[in-house]
Amino acid sequence: MKRCDICGDEHFGESLSCEACHKVVSKYQNKPKYPMAEVRKALRGAYYSKSEEKKESCFKCAYTGIIGKFNIQDGTLRTFDDALVLTLDHKNPNSNSKELVVSLNIINKMKTDIPFGDFKKVVIALGEYFNEENDRNSKKFEKELKQMVGKEILVDAPEFHLGGGMA
Ligand SMILES: [Zn+2]
Questions:
Q1: How many angstroms separate the alpha carbon of residue 5 from the centre of ligand 1?
Q2: Using one digit for the tens of pLDDT, what is the confidence trace for 42-57?
Q3: Which contiguous run of DSSP H or E holds residue 116?
Q4: How far is the CA of 90 from the centre of ligand 1 (A)?
């Protein structure tokens, strides 16, 4: 008997992980972008439970706390239709860190290469604008976005006509 390195359940197999966890691990084998030590670490940190028939391991999305499963089959996930499928996300893609986190597919696709902490700030600021779309909030969002990315925009927008509508 061995203990699975991810879920801690006992198993008889040869691999480090139990059959259910190994299905997920093996998806990422031989992919240089996903070092196995990081894959195992991310899965260990996100492990939640087994499915009822114990054939699949369930994990928790690092961004939303939503519990889900990885897609065991290969094939491209559609951003919206496969929103709730779990994936592994590079937490800070532009840094040297190879740290991975478990993420819902929709979040991973929306996030693309935005660093972990900044993604939340962008989404909150954008959500505030979407909540009440008007010129004032558009300018507010623009200012916040500029601060976040640390850049001035090249186009100097003309002054807004506060009060809205066509002048
Ligand atoms: Zn396991």
A1: 7
A2: 999 999 999 989 899 9
A3: helix 116-131
A4: 22
* Cα of 46 from ligand 1 centre, angstroms: 12
Contact 16, 4 (CB under 8 A): yes
Using a CB cutoff of 5 Å, list residues around ligand 1, an ion: 4, 6-7, 18, 21
CB 50 within 8 A of CB 20: yes
Task: Name the nearest CA neighbour of 78 among 91, 87, 66.
Answer: 87
pLDDT above 60: residue 161: no
Residue 21 C-alpha to ligand 1 middle, in angstroms?
A: 4
CA of 85 to the centre of ligand 1 (A): 19
User: Which pLDDT tens digit goes with each residue over 28-38?
Assistant: 999 999 999 99
Q: What gap in Å lies between CA 24 and CA 76, rounded to an integer?
A: 16
Query: What are the residues whose beta carbons fall under 8 Å from the beta carbon of 90, sequence distance 6 or more?
Result: 33, 98, 99, 100
Q: Is 32 left (phi over 0), alpha (psi -120 to 50) or beta?
A: alpha
Phi, psi of 51 (to 5 degrees): -65, 165
Which pTM does this prediction carry?
Answer: 0.85
Distance 9 CA to ligand 1 centre (A): 6
Cα 38 to middle of ligand 1, angstroms: 16
